Amino acid sequence: MNISELFIRRPIATSLLMAAIALFGVISYLALPVADLPTVDYPTVNVGASLAGGDPALMASVVASPLERQFTTIAGIDEMTSSSSAGSSNITMTFDLDRNIDSAVVDVQSAIQAAMPLLPSTLTAPPSFRKANPADMPIMFFAVGSSSMSMAAVDDYAENILAPRISMVNGVSQVSVFGAQKYAVRVQVDPNKLKAQSVGLNEVDQALRSWNVDSPTGQLFGPMSTYTINANGLLHNPEGVLSSAAMFRPIVLSYNEGRPVRLEQVANVLDSVETTTAGAWMLDRSGLQQVIYMAVQKQPGTNVVAVTDAVHALLPALEAELPRAAHLSSRLERATSIRQSFKDVQVTMLVTLALVVGVIFLFLHNGWATL
Asked: Which residue, among 304, 299, 297, 367, has the nearest Cα to 335 in the 3D structure?
């Protein structure tokens, strides 16, 4: 007796066995992860620090080096690279595959705290860290633009409303903003007017710092209660959203022969953005339009399609918070190509199944036996 005879003599058992194999195949098919590449994500932490006006050599020596010395004490680091540019430093640490990313983040945070006394006090913000590999491609790109709103207002919505909400989605590591147009008051000083009014650049700098500040002043202690002195010198526009150039123009720089010398007398003060030499544009059917781009990156070990679907589920709520003049559009998604490849695989499997059934039918010439 051969193996085939055993299955022929027991058709019910054979049918149940085939049904069990088919059920196992369906369950396995539904449980298969969908991704463009195999999941081999090394635990990676990226640390960034900013210092306004710092050149690359200065950033490498006074910002990147103290941080690197502290990071070398962390166990399980497989590779550490750093890059410094004008005003910013980035350090990327790749850990061993068996190192838990959450415990690695705790060690990185402790090392940053230990390095804080060694860093310059003029840092734009304390060093930040993210559980993302900067070499990984973003999984989604969004563009935020408006035909009537200023780019500073659009950037405010993108960085303070949209990006934080998207970064809270499960599986999203970070949301990077490109073409940022952060609001800033630009002071264009005229050297000839400074000389005529006997005012130095250091006086202009000191006046801007002292007239636009919000710091604790002190307390008044009485016999029964204590009062906090609030002397808020922070300049705001009438709406209280962004600082306005009109509030800076009357600042008194010094006194010349008993008369106050104001900022507007020696400089052109205008509403502008922090960086006027960079931006992002989008070309569509309506033409070329300046926009703010947001790139979404996933956490290591998460699925691209699942994270994309979760972000899309949040989009209606985000669009409801935007003003009518602003529009949010999706520009590129990695999940689209993954879904197309997955459909090709499904078609290939169906064609293969049809060919196998056709060959069996040609040999048996019996529909019921083929089934």
From this structure: 304
CA distance 62 to 222: 46
Mean pLDDT value across residues 341-350:
88
Judge contact between 234 and 245, C-beta under 8 A. no
Nearest to 95 by CA among 66, 65, 126, 74: 74
- Cβ contacts of residue 357 below 8 Å, gap of 6+? 370
| Phi, psi (deg, nearest 5) at residue 168 | -85, -10
Mention every residue, 6+ apart, whose C-beta is less than 8 A from residue 184: 272, 273, 274
63 in Cβ contact with 119 (< 8 Å):
yes
Q: Which residues are within 8 A (CB) of 141 and not within 5 positions of it... i.e. 6 or more apart?
A: 293, 294, 295, 296, 330, 331, 332, 333
Tokens of 160: 């303070």
Per-residue pLDDT at 151: 86
Give the Cβ contact number of residue 370 at 10 Å: 14
Inter-residue contact 109 to 73 (CB < 8 Å): no
User: Has residue 355 got a pLDDT over 90?
Assistant: yes
**pTM confidence score:** 0.66
- Ranges of beta strands (E only) in the chain are 44-50, 77-85, 88-95, 125-130, 140-146, 172-178, 183-189, 218-221, 226-229, 252-256, 259-262, 267-273, 280-284, 287-298, 326-333
